[in-house]
Write a structure and sequence with these properties.
The chain is an alpha/beta fold and about 350 residues long. It has helices at about 10-25, 35-40, 40-50, 60-70, 85-90, 100-110, 135-145, 170-180, 190-195, 220-225, 325-335, 340-345; strands at about 5-10, 30, 55, 75, 95-100, 115-120, 150-155, 185, 205, 230-245, 250, 255, 260-265, 285, 290-295, 300-305, 315-320, 350-354. It binds pyridoxal-5'-phosphate (PLP). Pyridoxal-5'-phosphate binds near residues 206, 207 and 208. Pyridoxal-5'-phosphate (PLP) binds near residues 32 and 190.
């Protein structure tokens, strides 16, 4: 069998949840498990995080799968209804809905509904992605309050810059100026806000990336926050090439040896989810030693420099990211973020749990 696998560390998921709870002790945790649990397997993550008071997903099918697996917590569809025909399914399964635009209000008002739903009214406080303009809030709120399709309401917004120096002040003050007199439950914080801005710890917090043991920040690594990586992507060397000076490796001759070198060929490529843009020098672990990738990542293989790891050979273990090589370090080298790499692990990669 091809040696690549993703190992999911359920104890790390639990550890990261406990850390989130310790940071926001008075809030309920809405664990964000969309995108197949950020690539870790939605149901696997939900089982590991069963102590969370809620789960946030994107698609009604995901909410249904969680209910069918027996989860009784609040389950929020983060973008609400995409079409009116989803409403009866969402209602029948007790899923909570974001309402981020007036079209979604109309879907609720138009529906003959047997069972009312709980809604989270989403406000655009400055990100300009989803959310009602603040000026439309009261009109929509009044109509939702009057609607027989709605049983409970909460208020939410999402921060654009909780992870960087711009911070949250502007968005938070817009949110507060509109809602601070209201006694409805509120939900603001993503991982970055949960970790850095206690003033955003309202009834619900919505951590995603931190639960998987990666950092939301450019200026602070996951280990420094106390997080543990929940995924190790590992494989093995399947061939070794001995290079003479001026020999090149792989497509495009991206790496040319300037001295005699040994290069290992690893069974992992961009069709497994490893970033093709990872340049020469991306960190990687071979036979327990940190080294660097060389050459261009191809569909099914990539290359590692094992010149200084003489014991490395065919069959040697390779950690692409995980407990020794933070996914965030690979992401940084490849010009992306840990989120993207975790979500991109391909379906052909077998998943194991420990
Ligand atoms: C609306 C919303 N809330 C919370 C999150 C979780 O964010 P993070 O993974 O940065 O904690 C996301 C993630 O994209 C989101 O879209």
């Amino acid at each position: 069998m091809r040696p690549i696998r993703a190992t999911i560390h359920t104890d790390a998921l639990r550890h990261n949840l406990a850390l989130a709870k310790s940071q926001a002790p008075n809030s309920k945790i809405m664990a964000v498990i969309k995108a197949d649990g950020y690539g870790h397997g939605m149901l696997r993550v939900a089982r590991a995080l069963a102590d969370a008071e809620g789960f946030a997903v994107l698609r009604v099918e995901e909410g249904v799968a969680l209910r069918e697996a027996g989860f009784k917590q609040t389950i929020l569809l983060l973008e609400g209804l995409f079409s009116a025909d989803e409403l009866p399914v969402a209602a029948a399964h007790g899923l909570s809905l974001v309402v981020h635009c007036e079209e979604q209000l109309h879907m609720l008002e138009a529906a003959p509904i047997a069972r009312p739903v709980s809604v989270f009214i989403k406000l655009n406080t400055g990100m300009h992605r989803l959310g009602l303009p603040l000026a439309r809030f009261w009109a929509v709120y009044d109509r939702l309050k009057a609607s027989k399709a709605v049983c409970e309401m909460a208020l939410m917004t999402h921060f654009a810059t909780a992870d960087d120096v711009y911070g949250i002040d502007e968005q938070l003050s817009r949110f507060n100026s509109l809602t601070q007199e209201m006694r409805l439950p509120k939900s603001l914080a993503n991982s970055a806000a949960l970790l850095r801005y206690p003033q955003t710890h309202t009834e619900w917090v919505r951590p995603g990336i931190m639960l998987y043991g990666a950092t939301p920040f450019a200026d602070q690594g996951a280990a420094g926050i106390g997080l543990k990586p929940a995924m190790t992507l590992s494989s093995q060397i399947i061939a070794v090439q001995n290079l003479s000076p001026s020999d090149a490796v792989g497509y495009g001759r991206l790496f040319v040896a300037d001295k005699p070198a040994r290069v290992g060929v690893v069974a992992c490529g961009y069709a497994d989810g490893y970033p093709r843009h990872a340049p020469n020098g991306t960190p990687i672990l071979v036979a327990g030693k940190r080294t660097r990738t060389v050459g261009r990542v191809s569909m099914d293989m990539l290359y590692v420099d094992i010149t200084d790891i003489p014991e490395a050979d065919i069959g040697s273990p390779v950690e692409l990211w995980g407990e020794n090589i933070p996914v965030d370090d690979v992401a940084l080298a490849a010009g992306t973020v840990g989120y993207e790499l975790l979500c991109a692990v391909a379906p052909r990669v077998p998943v194991a749990e420990d």
